[in-house]
TrEMBL record, chain A:
Transferase keyword on record: yes
Catalytic activity line of the entry: ATP + protein L-histidine = ADP + protein N-phospho-L-histidine
GO terms for MF: phosphorelay sensor kinase activity
Protein name, entry field: histidine kinase
Lineage: superkingdom: Bacteria
EC number: 2.7.13.3
PANTHER family: SENSOR HISTIDINE KINASE, TWO-COMPONENT SENSOR PPRA
SUPFAM superfamilies: ATPase domain of HSP90 chaperone/DNA topoisomerase II/histidine kinase (SSF55874), Homodimeric domain of signal transducing histidine kinase (SSF47384)
Domain Histidine kinase: 220-456
Pfam family, one: HATPase_c
Species annotation: Arsukibacterium tuosuense
TrEMBL record, chain B:
Location of the FIST domain: 28-223
Residue span, FIST C-domain domain: 224-372
Protein species of origin: Arsukibacterium tuosuense
Name the record gives this protein: Uncharacterized conserved protein, contains FIST_N domain
Classification via InterPro entries: FIST_C (IPR019494), FIST_domain_N (IPR013702)
Length: 461, 396
């Protein structure tokens, strides 16, 4: 071999190596640009947007997307894509020619497709979604136990060559770091969501504990108060009878001995007798109220002590509205709207009637003007019956909203409300596998919603 | 991936079959590439055990005999490289073909090979081919039309001992005389390659002013033979008369200069015969408008060249992929071999040294297919190529 040819050979060798270096330079440039772009925009956009931009510029890709493969490699979902149609694509099954373990799916290996039309491996759903795609470059990426793949598509055949495949393969570790970032963001979001859920559960548990404690306390107090209250109530009734006897005796004495009238007058006996009756009556009213409170406490503590059967909720609602209307009609109009002909639930009619009456009464008490309007709407959605009670009252203050379902919380004046209405109502509704919630409140009124499962419907539905 | 090299004595058919049976592996090879004398390839095709040993074969007849890193005696050998690569994918297809249908046959066979590899529509990492002489350009055109120029295509045209047309190829199922076999490789190891000639440029060149496929009619509007013989005269060589000139022109072929990165690489055309009308029949196609250069060579250039080409391919495997060589295929033009019969052992020795004693097989072919660094697959004559398969520690 001549000296000049040896030199030419060496030069060619150097040129080939230079070509390789240029490829690495291109790769480095791609990585640097990616880092720069991400550093500037990364916090404000999807982590893949910059990646897609740069890869698209370098490798002439018309579309790009990243897929996540499920753990058993039977389906894939689109993590992110340049095409809006792909972004909204639901999870898809992966095509496998047969069930042999060694059979690889399309995203499992680094590959360059010069003509997608020739490949039965290419998922049909992608052909349907992006019919213009003719060639593809696929690079699988593995992060821990998770499998992903980045896919570059072109509208022309033979777009991606072996060099492009090598560049993307080399770049894949960088893409992996993006995916890790994405994964970390997803995990952080999931963690935050779990924390929030945990906090809600803890708060709920505290609330449940509080309710349980109150329930136990209420049961104990009710039991302890019931006996003395029985004495008081019984004795007051007996005293009332005694006083009637005394009054009768005094009147008889006046008849037989008129002089006693002067003595009695001097002693203001008529007033004493009359006032004694008033005092007894007031005491009996107080005792009755105490008895009601104790009964409410017992209901709160043991709402399930009542028998359950399939009941006509519509009939209960109509009956409750009739009862409520006797008081409400003076200041407000009460309208029942039915979207359904019948509504049956499994439950206790008395308790549910109590709940509805409570809610309607609360709505009425919230109305402080003469144009009061309370609407009751009953609807059915799937296996759930919903009763929506809307008023045009003064609404509930922000500070009160979080406490309205707590026992003994009331916005009414002292002596006007026990503060047990809503908490008992919620306990009853939950005992019926339903829920009671404040849907909306503002200065223009409030909306409470009771949801109950339709009789015989699955409890989990 | 494992690559196993075998060099079997194929003089006796029964003995060859016994040797093949003895090669049985726990895993069937995905692909076997082989070279052997015409007799050896024929013997292989009649041994039914061949398909048990390997799912796919590209066995090509070599001029005289195959060669390998193992020194051999006698003249009928079968040199085999077996590829055992469960992670990779391989597919082979073949066609009986002719110059009229070769382009379409090439495309159809490539698609069939991709399908056999379970990779339809995908670009393979490498294509190995074995055409019969005369079909090479059409074969490459078909490949280019289907998948472009992105995949390196290497191979050698089947040969016989006297250009009598007895060459043959075996694909594992059938023996083909006029046609081709094509193999697509998706290996789990990197492959490096180098394609070059063992000749030097001279200052003498001319433009092809008339040509018909492989018939060079005129250069600078003068009969091609006149110009060619004038160049020979300038180079102190005797003019060649009309008739077969294959052997006489081995050290003075024509070259088409391919510029790549400011460096000229020559794609050679070997004059086969001079016609009475002054045109020259070549062993590869030339096109009107191309510049043709008179090339010169000698024994030392050819002996050195095979080692240099092998060494560059080995070095590239290390430089580009940081991979250790596992096995190699070396293609050496039959014309070159016939020109230096007494020095051919020096060629083998040089290759063995350059490849640092890794196993290799080779054949002497009637045409060589490969690509220079410009990334275009070409067919040439009097060319030398080396293809080296790396080790598992690196990915492709």
């Amino acid at each position: 071999m001549s000296q000049s040819e040896k030199q030419q050979e060496l030069l060619l060798q150097l040129k080939i190596e230079n070509q390789q270096l240029l490829k690495f330079k291109k790769l480095n440039s791609l990585m640097r640009d990616t880092l720069d772009t991400f550093a500037v925009k990364g916090r404000n956009q999807s982590p893949f947007t910059s990646l897609f931009d740069l890869l698209g510029q370098e490798l002439q890709a018309d579309q790009q997307f990243i897929v996540a493969i499920n753990d058993d490699e039977t389906s894939f979902s689109i993590l992110d894509a340049t095409s809006p149609q792909l972004k909204n694509l639901p999870a898809q099954l992966l095509h496998k020619k047969n069930d042999i373990d060694s059979e690889q799916h399309v995203f499992s290996q680094s590959s360059a497709f010069f003509d997608l039309a020739l490949s039965p491996k290419w998922p049909a759903v992608l052909t349907t979604t992006l019919p213009q795609a003719r060639s593809a470059l696929i690079q699988p990426i593995r992060i821990g136990q998770h499998h992903y793949a980045i896919v570059l598509l072109s509208d022309k055949t033979k777009t991606f060559n072996i060099e492009a495949k090598t560049v993307v393969a080399s770049y894949s570790s960088f893409i992996a770091s993006f995916l890790s970032l994405f994964e970390n963001q997803r995990l952080a979001a999931e963690r935050d969501q779990l924390f929030a859920q945990q906090k809600r559960i803890e708060q709920s548990m505290v609330q449940q504990d509080k309710l349980a404690a109150i329930g136990q306390l209420a049961a104990g107090v009710a039991h302890e108060l019931n006996n003395p209250l029985g004495f008081i109530y019984s004795n007051l009734n007996t005293l009332k009878v005694y006083m009637q006897t005394v009054q009768s005796f005094v009147h008889n004495a006046y008849a037989t001995t008129p002089a006693l009238k002067d003595v009695a007058k001097a002693a203001n006996l008529s007033f004493l007798l009359e006032d004694s009756f008033d005092l007894i009556e007031e005491s009996l009213t107080g005792a009755r109220r105490s008895r009601d409170i104790i009964n409410n406490l017992r209901t709160f503590s043991h709402p399930d002590d009542i028998s359950v059967s399939k009941i006509d909720l519509m009939a209960i609602l109509e009956s409750t509205i009739r009862i409520a209307n006797t008081q409400i009609k003076r200041n407000a109009k009460l309208i029942l709207t039915k979207d359904i002909a019948s509504a049956y639930v499994n439950g206790n009619a008395t308790q549910l009637s109590q709940v509805l009456l409570n809610l309607i009464n609360n709505a009425y008490h919230a109305i402080d003007h003469k144009q009061g309007l309370i609407t009751v709407l009953i609807t059915q959605l799937g296996h759930w019956l919903t009763i929506k009670i809307t008023d045009n009252g003064c609404g509930i203050s922000n500070s009160a909203v979080s406490h309205i379902f707590e026992p003994f919380f009331t916005t009414k004046d002292v002596g006007q409300g026990t503060g047990l209405g809503l908490s008992i109502s919620r306990a009853i509704v939950e005992q019926h596998n339903g829920c009671l919630a404040l849907e909306h409140t503002s200065a223009d009124g409030s909306v409470f919603v009771v949801s109950l499962p339709v009789a015989d419907a699955s409890k989990d539905d | 991936m494992r690559v196993l090299r075998h060099c079997l004595d194929a003089a006796d058919h029964t003995c060859l079959c016994d040797q093949l049976v003895a090669l049985e592996q726990p895993e069937t090879a995905c692909l076997s590439i082989a070279f052997g004398s015409v007799h050896a390839i024929s013997a292989l095709s009649s041994c039914h055990y061949a398909t048990t040993l390997s799912a796919n074969w590209v066995a090509t007849s070599s001029c005289q005999d195959a060669f390998s890193d193992q020194a051999t005696e006698g003249s009928h050998h079968l040199a085999i490289l077996q590829f055992i690569d469960p992670i990779g994918a391989y597919g082979v297809a073949s066609r009986h073909s002719d110059s009229k249908t070769i382009v379409e046959d090439s495309k159809a066979a490539l698609q069939q090979a991709l399908l056999a590899a379970n990779k339809p529509g995908e670009l393979p990492a490498f294509i190995w081919c074995s055409p019969s002489p005369g079909l090479e350009e059409g074969l490459l055109t078909g490949i280019r039309e289907l998948i472009g120029n992105d995949v390196p295509v290497f191979g050698g045209s089947s040969a016989d001992n006297d250009v009598s047309g007895n060459w043959c190829m075996f694909d594992g199922q059938q023996l083909i005389q006029t046609g081709f076999i094509i193999a697509v490789l998706f290996p789990s190891v990197p492959i490096s390659y180098y394609f070059s000639c063992g000749y030097e440029e001279t200052p003498y060149s001319a433009i092809v002013t008339a040509a018909n496929e492989r018939q060079l009619i005129s250069l600078n509007n003068q009969p091609a033979a006149d110009v060619y013989n004038a160049w020979r005269g300038h180079n102190s060589q005797t003019p060649l008369p009309a008739g077969p000139v294959l052997a006489a022109s081995t050290f003075s072929p024509l070259g088409r200069i391919v510029q790549q990165y400011e460096v000229s690489m020559a794609l050679l055309s070997h004059p086969a015969s001079i016609r009475a009308d002054g045109s020259i029949d070549l062993f590869s196609q030339v096109n009107t408008g191309e510049r043709i250069t008179f090339m010169q060579g000698d024994t030392e250039l050819l002996v050195e060249r095979a080692a240099t080409v092998s060494g560059i391919a080995r070095q590239q495997l290390s430089n580009l992929y940081d991979s250790k060589p596992q096995a190699a295929i070396v293609i050496f033009c039959a014309g070159c071999m016939l020109a230096i019969p007494d020095d051919i052992k020096r060629v083998h020795h040089g290759i063995r040294q350059a490849l640092e004693n890794i196993p290799f097989i080779g054949g002497y072919t009637f045409g060589e297919q490969g690509r220079f660094a410009d990334g275009i697959n070409r067919h040439g004559n009097l060319m030398i190529s080396a293809i080296i398969f790396g080790s598992d520690n690196e990915s492709v």
